[in-house]
Amino acid sequence: PVWVRCSREGVSSGECSLSVDRLISICFYLFFPFLNYRGQVRLVHGSGATGLQLVQSYSDSDEDSDGAWDGRLGHRYDPPADAQPDTQEIDHSEIRTQILLATASSGQKGRHSFTHMLAEREKGRCCGSSFSHGECSRIRSHFLPNHVVYKDTYQQKVFCGVYSDEGNMFLSACQDQNIRLYDTSRGRFTLKKTVKARDVGWSILDVCFTPDASCVLYSSWSDYIHVCSVDGDSETHTALDLNPDERRFCVFSLAASTDGKEILGGANDGCLYVFDREQNKRTLKIDAHEDDVNAVAFADSSSQLLFSGSDDALCKVWDRRTLREDRPQPVGHLAGHRDGITFIHSKGDARYLISNSKDQTIKLWDVRKFSPKEGLAASRLAVTQQNWDYRWQQVPQRALKRHKLTGDTSVMTYRGHGVLHTLIRCRFSPEFSTGQKFIYTGCSTGKIVIYDVLTGSIVSKLSNHDACVRDVSWHPYHNNMVSSSVSKTTVFILLMKTMMKSIC
């Protein structure tokens, strides 16, 4: 690597005296023209008497080295939360109306207590003598998972854990190269099958089910996305060759189309890849971002709109119907983050999405409100000023700026969780059980953090891990969730069910 060190006061020799800021400018001037910008240079502050270190690396996302981090900085970092989140934009947004209707919280009925609702039902004053679906969602949303009822212990780091779309299966991906499938139907949580992954470089980094849950997709530091059938007793492994140009290649994020025929991937070369399983070939490669693509998602069930998020701090929206490989033009940009994006999740309506970021925030976006050029410029400038590395350093105070960047078109910003060490995920809570009233995320402090979408406040923090929680998955129909955590020796997957403890 290329590195430069200096004291905190700067460099002084003879008649030459340089401040730290001046040295930063000189370093970028000297080294930047010779690097291709895809995450290959970063100026970071050292500790103790050391001032600066200019590090050249191929990727600053999920690095293929166990020496980079151990997931245990949490006890030294207390992520700051907003005492009074700014709700000015979301108070006048369509998503507010959607959530209030989905949870029967609008109008006079929305102010009634549970006891009043129960009394009304007993008197037969409810629609059809029972609670509506919205009223059921409202009640369930007040009783969140908070009690550990199951643990599974591994000897290596767990990077991913997700439920299938129907919630009948759960899979975890571990650094021991095993994919474990659990039967979660009818209230069970039992290990059904263990699949040995193939062609794994360092670790499996992302997994997903096909919509029918007959196959599992997984990616690693490899030129291939792998498909493994999990239906029945037999196993069929298929390697999907993305044919990349990079020598060291990794797909950080995967998504399957609604019909399961196409696979979308985001990679460390800044490109989006689409692989057609029926044609058995890569059908699209888009030069999408200036840095690692850490997150991809389909916007809705049509699978025509694509979302991508990158270490360049931008979310981009793509339309398959107008997308050309020779002239890749996104429909629009979403700018406002100050550092790289680790994960994105669509609400499923092709309008709203959330993004998790190394700037220690989650942002809610409306794809009908794209960012202007000023927003793109402000976000790019903010990224170049990030002179620390989230993989092994603590968050510097200067990185926790709260004011919005120029051109930030986000609907809401959520603070109170830590994003360190690895690509931590965030998601909307299930529509069926909560009306998507919450956003939940892993945290570098070993917690699961649950936010209220409309108020931005933290409604629950679950502290059941001793190391970074990278992934959390909420059952699509039942009020339980599974979290996947990492540590040097043991890893826990925790299934939490609701006990009678209301958040209100």
Automatic annotation (TrEMBL):
GO terms for cellular component: Cul4-RING E3 ubiquitin ligase complex. InterPro entries: DCAF, DCAF11/LEC14B, WD40/YVTN_repeat-like_dom_sf, WD40_repeat_dom_sf, WD40_rpt. Gene3D superfamilies: YVTN repeat-like/Quinoprotein amine dehydrogenase. Residues 63-87 are annotated as: Disordered. Pfam families: WD40. WD repeats lie at residues 286-319, 334-368. Keywords: Repeat, Ubl conjugation pathway, WD repeat. Belongs to the WD repeat LEC14B family. May function as a substrate receptor for CUL4-DDB1 E3 ubiquitin-protein ligase complex. PANTHER family: DDB1- AND CUL4-ASSOCIATED FACTOR 11. This is DDB1- and CUL4-associated factor 11. The lineage of its organism: Eukaryota, Metazoa, Chordata, Craniata, Vertebrata.
